[in-house]
Amino acid sequence: MEPQDQPIEGGVVTTDPADEIAELEAKATAALEGAADLAALDEAERVAFRSRSSRFARMYQKLGSMEFEERRDVGRRLNELRGRLEKLADRRRAELGAAARAERLAADRLDLTEVLPGRLAGHLHLVTQVREALEDVFVGMGYEIAEGPEVETGWRNFEALNIPEDHPARSPVDTFYVDYGEPWSVLLRPHTSPVQIRLLERGVLPIYAVVPGRTYRKDTPDSTHLPVFHQIEGLVVDRGVTFGDLKGTIATFVRAIFGEGTRTRLRPAYFPFTEPSAEFEMSCVICGGEGCRTCAGVGWIELGGCGMVHPAVFEATGVDPEEWTGFAFGFGIDRLAIMRHGIADLRVMVENDVRFLGQF
Ligand code: 2NL
């Protein structure tokens, strides 16, 4: 005799409805959870509570012969049980659906890098390779990589960077504005600095970050300009950061990318978002500083700009300039890539001639 079977007077064996519901639930739960595919789940559902001959349906039919109190009680339990089983079946159906989808995606996967007879193997674009090489160098120095949106607010691109209202970079002659929100309030970022502004706004300090990404300026393409290009900017904010730390960081990454013998120098410059500001240059990759056509005879090649973060940038983003100090730098990844690989013209990067790009 099963424990839930209760003998009652007259020797008739019957079952307490509460025990029967519990047993039904245990069996149905096991069947639903154990269903190995969608067909098995449909069948388990049918047997458990959907079909008219299910045990669930039979218990429902018995309600008609019960006294009012018991009918109300058992009816409520049955309805609650149906709710739980339906939820369980829905969950299992979602699990099985996700598994089937993952299986289908894995089966449909096409390896586009596979070498077809007579074809080149695909590989990362040169700009991506150089970007990843730069990221590796900075990750090795303990920096994090940060990314942000390419469509940004004028505030994060200009006001927060202490760039005055009448600065030429803000005019629609230089910057692509987007017709969204207040006039002139949204644009395609002309540098990656708005991502660093986001890091400062977040207020999690210290910051050691590099920000690589695509940037947009209304430049006519020539050997040194593209309207869509890539930048990487660095931002360090900590207590007691010096200009010497900045110089050492630039010297270190330039040697890592261009070789240990490469020298770097800083020359005074002006940016509204740094003070003091400098341009950084490296010894010419072609002639090593002797003077050649690539470096126009001077032995040095300009890479980018840098400086100590201006207190106005800290103030705009809610960072206390009395407590925190920082440096920042920025340069073009595409320009660095053509320098590193001795390419004379930036435009080859976007012409996408695989006979050219396939060499790298
Ligand atoms: C260049 C010059 C530079 C920065 C970028 C920066 C960012 C923040 C605060 C302060 Cl949030 N500075 N970025 C600083 C100096 C120069 O780039 O010639 N880029 C191609």
Written overview of the protein:
The chain is an alpha+beta fold and 360 residues long. Helix 1 (17-34) packs parallel to helix 4 (68-108) and helix 5 (126-140) crosses helix 10 (333-340). A hairpin with a 5-residue loop joins strand 1 (5-7) and strand 2 (13-15). A seven-stranded mixed sheet has the order 3-6-7-11-10-9-8, sandwiched between helices. Strands 1-2 form a two-stranded antiparallel sheet. The chain contains twelve helices and eleven strands. The radius of gyration is 34 Å and the shape is elongated. It has helices at residues 17-34, 38-50, 55-62, 68-108, 126-140, 154-157, 193-202, 243-258, 311-316, 333-340, 348-351, 354-357; strands spanning 5-7, 13-15, 144-145, 151-153, 186-188, 207-216, 228-238, 264-271, 274-283, 300-309, 325-332. 2-{3-[(4-chloropyridin-2-yl)amino]phenoxy}-N-methylacetamide is lined by residues 193, 196-197, 231, 233, 235, 271, 273-274, 304-307, 309, 313, 328-332. Residues 193, 196-197, 231, 233, 235, 271, 273-274, 304-307, 309, 313, 328-332 line the site of 2-{3-[(4-chloropyridin-2-yl)amino]phenoxy}-N-methylacetamide.
